[in-house]
Each structure stands twice: as structure tokens, then as C-alpha cells.
């Protein structure tokens, strides 16, 4: 056997297992996102997250106004089972047991401050401690098993909380100003909703009643659904409004590299000679999901298990990156914006809308005007731009690659020149 060949085989086997091990490790890191804790003082809640996903919420007791729980970013620095208590200013120690106010678990986050159990379960939900965070005994024992030292702990003061649960139910809570630090106004509530991508979904009268009454709990007010476009989860939600699912059309168009026109006076949305009714919630314009095919074409499917609408819309990609969502069916097949393709390739194209003429490489070419812009047939891209094209009907994707034909630049050189 050739020794060089044998060594090559050994190296390939080693590389194969190394690469697979690296991929497995990377996937495990993604799947096992580190936990983090967020404590919100006005709502007296402790939330445990795994990455960005809420795992569990616990009711807590916090420091009283004279000894407030400090805000800031901390981490768990110690864990102790059956802790002893050293009363401030006293020279004795209270061992673990029913008389110990720390309960049976201690999670230290800073000198003299920690998360612990309690022998006064009725105090949970109040501002009564010397600054530590109290939990029901069964809750702190549950949390103790879920987190390790170095787990981040953020203590914040947010009187307005907006939440979207795993079923898409949207709730808002306004909580007491336990330390007299934060005033809640209509403007601040709307700002919080807008930051969560939920602006305009709640009526002013509803928000005013919450501000006036301070319900001290989460109140449901909307139903949203997740949105995937061509396999990618989008930040904007679909909302259920008066029995119909509606989608934020401007955000969708932006993500596809295209545009739509909003007519405020007529309450309509238009794209390339097609018009559908629209409605504005806050700063976002929505259309009914059933009107999506009119404006964008493509296919849609409802995934009930994930509470998600999955859209497959026609797009063009160049060298693996999104080029345009503005591709259209014409009589001869698909068409794509000529100026968009030219810009991506660095080609000079002369578009003269007044003369209704499109010049590529100085020669007039056939085109279709859509929305005031010249579109060229995909079947002509090879001849016009030396582009290879491949249409995938399942993913509704037009893949473009360059060049279709290899160009021999040596023909442009003088005989004595070198081609570098």
C-alpha cells in the first residue's frame, strides 16, 4: 500500500471526526442557552429565562422602602443548603430550621444580599425585607436546582410590563411605585408597547383605565401570531383584530427588499397596480392576511402548533444573498427589476422613462414597465447580463449566479502584455 495514500486516509478520518465533534459541540451550545434571572421590583416577580425564552415566573418579596432591594446587574456568587442566619448587629447565630428567616436555600448575589426562602410565606408579594429577595420555600428550592454560580441576575425597576406568552396572548401590567421612583404616563405606556412591536393595539381608554386603577397584575388585551417568511422568523407579529388576522405590511415589504404605498386618505395599500384595504395601528400599517397573495403572490400555510403563519414568497437571490422581492409573473415567465440587477453587477444601464427606452451596453432591450420601473424577463438574463438562473418552485426562490459563460479577457490584451 502507498504510505502517502495511507497517511492521507488517516488524516481525512481524523478531520472528519474533529469536524463532526466541533459541529456537535456548537449545536449543543446553541441548544443549551445559559439561564438568566430578571427581578422586577414593582411587580415583585423573579423571572427565569433560558436565553430569550421565559421558563418560569415566581412571586417574591422585596426590600421595604427604608431598606430597598438594590437595582443593578449581579450574578450568583454562592449557593448554600440549610444556611445559618447572622442577625445584623447581634452576636448570635440562628441555625437552619423553622426559626431561620432565610429558609432552607440561599443564593448569594452580593455581600449581604441574596435570594432565599422564608419562614413567613404570607410576606411573599410584599415589600418587607431588609433588601434581600424572599421566595416561597418550594419556589426557591426549584430555582436552586435550575441555576448555578455565575448565573446573571438583573434587578430592574419597570412599572409597565408587556408580555407575549407562548400561545401569542398579549398582556400588559402596571404595577405600584413601591419606592416612589417612576411615574407612569400615557406616553410612557405607549412607548413601552411600541418598543415591543405592539404599538397601536390597545385602545387609549383601556390604557387610561389601567393607569388610573394600577391593577398590579398582567391584563390580556390582544392575540398575536408569529410570522415566518421563507423560513426566517420575523420580529413583527401578525395580530388578530376584530376576528381577522392582519400583518404589518410595511415591515414585510422592507424584509423582502421591496416597497408598498400607503394611501392614508383612502386607507389602502398598493403595490404594482394592485390595491387592497389597509388599516393603521399606531405607526404600523396592516393588511388582512387573506390579501397577501394579491400584493405579493407566493404561498401561505398555518402552523397551529407554533402559532405561526409561514409565508413562502417569490424572491431573487444573488450569490446566496437576498437581491429583491420584486419579481413578477409576466406572459413570458418571471421578470426582475433591471436596475436592481445592474446595480448588483456594477453594470451601467440607461433607463429613459420619458422615451420608454432601456439601454444595456448601449443597445435597446425589451422590457416590461411595472410601477414605473423597467423589468426584464428572467429568461433573458443570460444574454443581457451573463447570469445563470435557477428557479426553485418549492421555495419560490430565483437563484442568480455569475457568470453564465466564462469570459476570456486575454483577447483584450496586446500580444506583449501579461494577464495578471
Automatic annotation (TrEMBL):
Pfam families xref list: YkuD
Keywords in alphabetical order: Cell shape, Cell wall biogenesis/degradation, Glycosyltransferase, Hydrolase, Peptidoglycan synthesis, Transferase
Chain segments annotated as coiled-coil in the UniProt record: none
Active site residues per record: 116, 132
Domain L,D-TPase catalytic: 35-156
Superkingdom field: Bacteria
SUPFAM superfamilies: L,D-transpeptidase catalytic domain-like
InterPro entries registered for this protein in UniProt: LD-transpeptidase, LD_TPept_cat_dom, Transpep_catalytic_dom
Pathway membership, UniProt: Cell wall biogenesis; peptidoglycan biosynthesis
Family named by the database record: Belongs to the YkuD family.
The protein's name: L,D-TPase catalytic domain-containing protein
